[in-house]
UniProtKB/TrEMBL annotation:
Protein family membership: Belongs to the CAMTA family.
SUPFAM superfamilies given in the database record: E set domains
GO biological process, one term: nervous system development
Keywords for the protein's UniProt record, in alphabetical order: Activator, ANK repeat, Nucleus, Repeat, Transcription, Transcription regulation
Highest taxon above the source species: Eukaryota
One of the record's GO cellular component terms: nucleus
Name the record gives this protein: IPT/TIG domain-containing protein
Subunit description: May interact with calmodulin.
Species of the source: Synaphobranchus kaupii (Kaup's arrowtooth eel)
Predominant location: nucleus
Example of a GO MF term: transcription coregulator activity
Subcellular location per the Swiss-Prot or TrEMBL entry: Nucleus
Domain IPT/TIG span(s) in chain numbering: 28-107
Amino acid sequence: MHVAEVVSAAVAHGTLGMLQATGRLFMVTDYSPEWSYPEGGVKVLITGPWQEASSNYSCLFDQITVPASLIQPGVLRCYCPAHDTGLVTLQVAVSNQIISNSVVFEYKARALPALPSSQHDWLSLDGSERGGLGRVQHVLVYVMKNGLPNSPFTVFN
C-alpha cells in the first residue's frame, strides 16, 4: 500500500489505527526554515504526504504542540513556539498522535551587534584621553562662563 493510500484510508476511517497497524511513520520530506531565534513565531513549512484538509494537524517542537494548517496538499504550515537555544525534534501529529519521523530544528541565539573598534576605544577612555571631545567640553565650559568671543552678552553669569 502506498503512503498516500494509507493516509487516505486512515482519514476515511477517522482513525490512525491503519498507520499504527502498518507500523510506519510518514517521512517529512523537507522543512523550511530549519532554525529560529529563541523567541519563536517563525513560519515553518513542512512537506510530506499530508493530504486531508479536514484533519486536525499539529506540530511538536520537542514536547511543545502548536497547531498546523494544510495550506495545499503535501504542505503544512505552523509557527514555531518560543524555546531555549539548542536542537529540538520536530514532528507532525494528527489528533495528538504522532504520524511522522523526527527531524532536527534548531533554536539559535542572536549575535550581539559588534561595535566598531573605534567606538570600543572611545567608550573605554576617560575624559582626559578623549582628545577632540575633551577640547569641545573645554570650549563649552569657557563659552558658558565667558560668553562668545566678540559678543556683547554672556550665556550664563
